[in-house]
């Protein structure tokens, strides 16, 4: 089974709920466990928020999501200045901002960053899916 959603979005906070709702609706329809869906929603929100906050001078970004049997793969691609995740300093306890990478690393089963030096960045997040008993996703995987 493979389900894919790909959207090119304006680099604006109003774009985040759109892709979040589309992906959650797909995962819900397949019968993915609610805790897994919540983790995916938070990872996606953090990745998109980082693009919106930091990916200058880009006007837009792309989110590509795929459900491949028991995995969800999310790629958030921007055309900004790029970044090196190893150079990001962890925030102080109680800081209001700067926890996005920590949250994504904590929730993802796999996370990869591709810095395209002055041509943006790609954040790839993977999460193993759990399905409810009798879920459509389990049936489709078996085919």
Automatic annotation (TrEMBL):
<dbReference type="InterPro" id="IPR036890">
    <property type="entry name" value="HATPase_C_sf"/>
</dbReference>
<dbReference type="GO" id="GO:0004674">
    <property type="term" value="F:protein serine/threonine kinase activity"/>
</dbReference>
<keyword id="KW-0723">Serine/threonine-protein kinase</keyword>
<keyword id="KW-0418">Kinase</keyword>
<dbReference type="InterPro" id="IPR003594">
    <property type="entry name" value="HATPase_dom"/>
</dbReference>
<feature type="domain" description="Histidine kinase/HSP90-like ATPase">
    <location>
        <begin position="10"/>
        <end position="126"/>
    </location>
</feature>
<protein>
    <submittedName>
        <fullName>Serine/threonine-protein kinase RsbW</fullName>
        <ecNumber>2.7.11.1</ecNumber>
    </submittedName>
</protein>
<dbReference type="Pfam" id="PF13581">
    <property type="entry name" value="HATPase_c_2"/>
</dbReference>
<dbReference type="InterPro" id="IPR050267">
    <property type="entry name" value="Anti-sigma-factor_SerPK"/>
</dbReference>
<keyword id="KW-0808">Transferase</keyword>
């Amino acid at each position: 089974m493979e389900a894919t959603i790909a959207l090119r979005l304006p680099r604006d906070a109003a774009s985040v709920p759109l892709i979040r709702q589309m992906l959650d609706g797909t995962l819900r329809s397949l019968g993915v466990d609610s805790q897994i869906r919540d983790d995916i929603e938070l990872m996606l929100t953090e990745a998109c928020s980082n693009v919106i906050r930091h990916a200058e001078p880009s006007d837009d970004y792309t989110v590509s999501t795929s459900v491949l049997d028991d995995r969800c793969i999310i790629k958030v691609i921007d055309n900004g200045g790029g970044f090196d995740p190893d150079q990001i300093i962890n925030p102080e306890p109680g800081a209001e901002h700067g926890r996005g990478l920590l949250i994504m690393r904590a929730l993802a089963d796999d996370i990869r960053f591709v810095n395209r030096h002055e041509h943006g960045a790609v954040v790839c997040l993977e999460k193993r899916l759990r399905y409810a008993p009798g879920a459509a996703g389990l049936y489709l995987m078996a085919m």
